[in-house]
Amino acid sequence: MAKQRGVVAAGSPETAEAGVEALQAGGNAVDAAVAAAIATAAGEPALTSHRDGPSGRVTICDFSPNAPGLGAPAEQTMDFFPVQLQFGPATQVFHIGRAAAAVPGGLAGLMAAHHRWGRLPLARVVAPACRMLRAGVVLSAFQQSCIDLLAPILNHSAGSREVFAPGGELLQSGQLATNPRLADSLEQLAELGWEAFRERVLHPAVLADFGIASGGCISAQDLAAYQPDFRAPLERSYRSTRLWLPPKPAAGGTLIALGLALLEGRSADALDLRARVAAMRTMEHARALASDPLAAEELARLAERFATWVDEPEATAPAAPGEGATTHVSVLDADGNAAALTISHGEGNGYAIGETGIIMNNMMGEADLHPDGFHQAPAGTRLATMMSPALLSAPDGSLTALGSGGANRIRTAILQVILNLVDGGMDPRAATEAGRVHWEAGVLNAETFDLPGGPAALEGLLPEGERLVAFDQHHLFFGGVHVARRSADGAFSGGGDPRRSGAVLFA
Questions:
Q1: Which domains does the chain possess?
Q2: DSSP E strands: which ranges in 263-372?
Q3: Which of 206, 293, 400, 435 has CB atoms 3.0–4.6 Å from 485's, for a disulfide?
């Protein structure tokens, strides 16, 4: 039997297939992760975490978006407005329009990661995506539900309708979804190289459609200043398991590390809902604190608050931030390399970038990223996203890559899957499929399908003034954690989150 080359866990079979194809062509974990990310969508802001097999060194490549506005006038007319979307029993408000676009870094980051760590020629990496984009992918019921959810955004402009409603009506399950313009752009990128493609094709189109004259906020100075950042990770341990998480300015890694530190002092019971909810309360409270890193006295106060919330929950909480839509790819290869890549363009801002087939982000319209109000972030600064691609090295010699979509639910989704893996001893699939809860701003959202006692078991966790929103099945509201693992003996396993049509494929 031939030796396996690796495993890819992603948000759809087609995305995972692109990664597997790269591995089978002789590529490594980064080639596979970039191929999979491009097969999902191009031009998205992202974070990726990479572990080099021979050295064991972990590096974070941060290509999250920047706040635009360098050199912009003090006053300008902005194309920026709210839309309301329905997530099952939960309603969320988003902002779209040309001024909702942050300075995009997705292609820049994917190209930087591929240049630094990849093995295959770029043309080979983008080939699976180009083939799928031209031939079309049969739309699944889950993908249709996402299109239906985002209908007010996807119907907003001719460029967006060309992709999602090519016949005049939004695509339905069973139909072929194609994007030949994006395939052309990707092949042009591979032919010209990143720098030439950026200067000749991408940047002129971004400025034309999302510049200040068109009602957007992006300037030529913004685009020229943007660079992916390679950083050392935030390294922590939890019950003898080593973890690597994104550092600041990303918000998620720090909060997940805090939650794990608080829970480590309790018994290793992955089903201790009271402690989990108390940790979530504390994590949300910590996000509002100013110092970075947190001072010792602040950490002590947080630990005290956590202990109080475990015994006697409070009703007072910060205001609820907004939500977003994100996806994740986890890859491990036979050489010991690992890549965890989280990508997002929010919900899209309703417009495509020129004739490229790339749908633009709405990260300036994500309330979760702008606690001080929209368009208040200093121009040129990284937005503090919740995206948290993570790597775990366990005492048994296994290496695990994971991450999630879900905006501010990312921190709680990853926290709970880590608890399931480490404390619960679950395999990646079981850890991913177990029910989740998410507490925020006085609301406990909970999947109750596998909860002993059902919703009634949660009544003691909520004081007067808070409420419970119960979900009786898996729901995309709780993120999409895709997990890939390589055991010490070289065996691969994984878990694709059923909440977001997750898939695991082996090469």
A1: 236-323+392-488 (3.60.20)
A2: 326-333, 338-344
A3: 400
